[in-house]
Amino acid sequence: MHQADILEIKAFVPARDFSLSLAFYADLGFELRSSGGDIAYLSAGGCSFLLQAFDEPSHAHLFQMHLLVRDVQAWHDRVVTRRLVETYGVRVTPITIQPYQMRDFTVSDPSGVCWVIGENIPGGLHV
After folding, report:
1. Which DSSP string corresponds to the chain?
2. Which of 29, 53, 75, 103 is most buried, by CB atoms within 10 Å?
3. Domains of the chain: which residue ranges?
4. What contacts 12, CB < 8 A, 6 or more positions away?
5. Angle at CA 43, nearest 5°, toward 45 and 76?
């Protein structure tokens, strides 16, 4: 196998309530590309993941995704203006500056999956 043979890597994100999670991700800014059975393919920009109707609470609460964006403030504003906390009962944190040279915030999805959404601080070391 050669690196050129690799086309993409996607995570399977668990969803306790599949329909509710689909609505949440649409409001967050992801587009539904395809769906079949208990799996949906969602994307934003050049990034994608698979949402799976899978309910294992201990797994969901330990599962994290990281989304690197150009403008973390715009993403945080989207979460606030679209009222994701009130609509879906999720948690969101303020934007903070991390020691690894990122500005980021977290938002949980309806199943408890933690999304870290951040942007690189110019001139710093990045993870």
Report:
1. --GGG------EEEESSHHHHHHHHHHHT-EEEEEETTEEEEEETTEEEEEEE---HHHHHH-EEEEE-S-HHHHHHHHHHTTHHHHH---B---EEETTTEEEEEEE-TT-PEEEEEEEPTTS---
2. 75
3. 3-120
4. 39, 49, 50, 52, 54
5. 70
Mean pLDDT value across residues 44-48: 93
**What pLDDT, in 10s, does the model give residues 25-42?**
999 999 999 999 899 999
The CATH class, in words, for 3-120 is: alpha beta
Instruction: Find tokens 């991700």 and name the residue.
Output: 25
Report, as an integer, the average pLDDT of 53-61: 85
Mean pLDDT of 67-80: 96
101, pLDDT greater than 60: yes
Determine contact, residues 106/92, Cβ cutoff 8 Å: yes
Number of residues assigned to the chain: 127
Looking at residue 68, its pLDDT comes to: 95
Nearest to 24 by CA among 100, 82, 81, 75: 82
